[in-house]
Specification:
Blueprint (H helix, E strand, L loop, with lengths): L1 E7 L6 E7 L4 H4 L1 E4 L3 E7 L5 H10 L4 H11 L6 E7 L4 E5 L8 E5 L2 E5 L6 H12 L6 H15 L9 E7 L5 E7 L5 H12 L3 H9 L5
Antiparallel strand pairs: 1-2, 1-8, 2-9, 3-4, 4-5, 5-6, 7-8, 9-10
Helix pairs in contact: 2-3, 4-5, 5-6
Length: 217
């Protein structure tokens, strides 16, 4: 019941995830990212334990596909899960268990993967990938590219149920996210998420500076 995009910014090394679903609080359950390591989404019948498990294997040096494969070897009820991952080199991997809700699918590009289930059309991940690739931006523009992809997924039909929540997670060089925005339940979660980004974007660097040099702010 979720559609997502994961990407690595080739210029800055940032990792990001944007996603939306019909259920509440998707940002608390599905996206995971670590600076210099990669990003993961775990969805369909979501098991939040799988995100940190995949990240740990990426941290240990596994590529995205190997990290997914090794995690799923011991994951309970793996046939219910849908996962995607991206590693530090921008390599991507996806997994769609046999019990993943139809329609399910993915679209891959260099340093980016879009995945989803209960999709209105298999054009959704393709539209997300295309929007991300056609968008461009500076250091703060990475988040906007992810949001553009999420909006494109909605325009292509999104999922078959009305959306309820959305989230945007981005990590840079610090051990904490530079952007972690969530709409836990709303009739227009993607629109609300875009509005939150408009508020957060001008202040994001200042909040980071307060961590490293509080006297400068």
């Amino acid at each position: 019941m979720t559609f997502s995009i994961l990407a690595r910014c080739s210029r800055t090394g940032r990792f990001g995830v944007a996603l939306a679903t019909s259920s509440p609080a998707v940002g608390a359950r599905c996206p995971f990212a670590a600076s210099g390591v990669g990003a993961v989404v775990t969805q369909n019948r979501t098991d939040p334990r799988l995100g940190p498990a995949v990240l740990a294997k990426l941290q240990a040096g596994a590529d995205a596909q190997t990290a997914l494969d090794r995690t799923l070897e011991t994951a309970p009820a793996a046939h219910w899960r849908q996962l995607a991952a991206i590693d530090a080199q921008g390599r991507v991997a996806g997994f769609h268990g046999v019990r993943t809700l139809p329609l399910c699918g993915e679209a891959r590009g260099e340093g980016v993967i879009a995945v989803g289930n209960l999709l209105a059309s298999l054009a959704v991940p393709v539209a997300m990938l295309r929007a991300f690739q056609q968008s461009s931006g500076d250091r703060t523009g990475f988040e906007q590219r992810l949001l553009d992809a999420l909006v494109a997924g909605c325009a292509a039909g999104g999922e078959t149920r009305p959306l309820g929540s959305a989230a945007l997670l981005v990590v840079d060089q610090d051990p904490f996210p530079v952007t972690d925005l969530r709409v836990d339940y709303h009739a227009d979660p993607v629109g609300q998420l875009a509005g939150l980004w408009d508020i957060w974007a001008p202040q994001a660097d200042a909040y980071r500076r307060r961590v490293h040099d509080p006297e400068s702010c």
